[in-house]
Amino acid sequence: MKERIITGVLLVIFVFAGLVYASDYLFGVGVFLVAMLSAYEWLKFTKISQQETVNYLVIFMIILFVVSEFFVYIQYVFPIFWLYAIYRLSGYERQKFDALSTNEMLILGVFAISPFAASLYVLHTNSIAWIFMFILVVAGADSGAYFTGKAMGNRKMLPRLSPNKTIEGLLGGMACAVVIAVIFLLFMDLSIFEYVSMVVISAVVAALSVVGDVFESMMKRIAGVKDSGNILPGHGGVLDRLDGYMPALPIFVTLGYLAGVFVV
């Protein structure tokens, strides 16, 4: 527990310093490193050789640059991918399959990680305030879901994949996210339409964060591992910390762009 707390505190300090003090260039370098670490952990799920891992990391690096460069044009593909991910989660939950092919796992990794990294950089170029809001919304949704589920959770959402998650917890998490958004957005210079849009988007983000959490759980079960890595003592790997953020951030940015709030 002590190790987990120390790592958590250091992470908060590091993230805060990076958001507040880093230039767009330095922040971009940081995002790139996080994306590559995430990709490396994902590749370990597939059990491919070390040489193949290096080859695929090079390919992923190229894809990441392409996604970042043409984000404004391809951002609408990201929701389609996560709809497919939900479909695969449903199939796994209903015991339609217990394994994925190596190629499918590789493709899933590309679509899970590269849009997240590109979206994070885009959001930073808009305003760090939006990143803080996004983090608070997802973290608040997670806490709200936990306490609501503990207090009144009866209907299990995904008994096989995540037996502790309940429908009541999901709704409680979404409600908590909305409350955080309502308060935070009061300090932003927004029109009524933009304000209401971002509140609704925050509820969507809260639900999607659950998708990311259980999606990584599915990948780890298929790979037969408990954690995605051990780079963060007491917390596991990078993916273990980012799983809830990965599907939520690209959708947050795209919907915010459509609402006229963000520039991409």
Automatic annotation (TrEMBL):
Membrane topology listed for this record: Multi-pass membrane protein
Listed InterPro entries: PC_trans
Tree of life domain: Bacteria
Broadest EC class assigned to this enzyme: transferase
Pathway recorded for this protein: Phospholipid metabolism; CDP-diacylglycerol biosynthesis; CDP-diacylglycerol from sn-glycerol 3-phosphate: step 3/3; Lipid metabolism
EC number: 2.7.7.41
Cellular localisation: Cell membrane
Keywords in alphabetical order: Cell membrane, Lipid biosynthesis, Lipid metabolism, Membrane, Nucleotidyltransferase, Phospholipid biosynthesis, Phospholipid metabolism, Transferase, Transmembrane, Transmembrane helix
Reaction(s) catalysed (UniProt annotation): a 1,2-diacyl-sn-glycero-3-phosphate + CTP + H(+) = a CDP-1,2-diacyl-sn-glycerol + diphosphate
GO CC entries: plasma membrane
Record-stated family: Belongs to the CDS family.
Protein name according to UniProt: Phosphatidate cytidylyltransferase
Taxonomic lineage: Bacteria, Pseudomonadati, Pseudomonadota, Gammaproteobacteria, Thiotrichales
